[in-house]
Specification:
Layout: H1 3-11, H2 23-35, E1 42-44, E2 47-49, E3 59-64, E4 67-75, E5 78-87, E6 94-100, E7 106-107
Antiparallel strand pairs: 1-2, 3-6, 4-5, 6-7
Helix pairs in contact: 1-2
The site of zinc ion (ZN) has 8 residues, from loops.
Length: 118
């Protein structure tokens, strides 16, 4: 059963698309999506190639990093938060992936290739 089939079975077990979803249902969907592996980016003749659109294009490296902002407090009934944010640059981000800048699909890092941050 594919991840899509699993999601379809959880969301519409009786085929009733009008039934509202519970938080437990949405948590179950999130678990499936988290466990779904991205297809790896290919390396062809020493260059990255998108496994979807097949282009040797520019890629961006994405990772999920926690940013934080200082909360000033409540002023005249408004929660005031500083616009400037900081991040802890010493930790690795979660969910590293490459985003193809042609089709904007996300893909896993290529297999059997070392990664170096310079
Ligand atoms: Zn692509």
């Amino acid at each position: 059963m594919t991840a899509l089939d699993q999601i379809r079975e959880i969301l519409w077990p009786s085929g009733d698309a009008d039934r509202p979803w519970s938080p437990d249902t949405l948590d179950a969907i999130a678990q499936i999506v988290k466990a779904t592996e991205l297809r790896p980016t290919k390396v062809v003749h020493g260059k990255l190639r998108c496994p979807d659109c097949k282009r040797n294009t520019e890629f961006k490296y994405y990772e999920d990093i926690m940013n934080y902002r200082t909360v000033r407090g409540i002023e005249n009934g408004v929660l005031v938060i500083e616009g400037f944010y900081e991040t802890d640059g010493s930790d690795d981000g979660e969910n590293p992936r490459l985003c193809c800048q042609s089709c904007f699909g996300d893909f896993a890092l290529p297999k059997a290739v070392e990664v170096d941050f310079v």
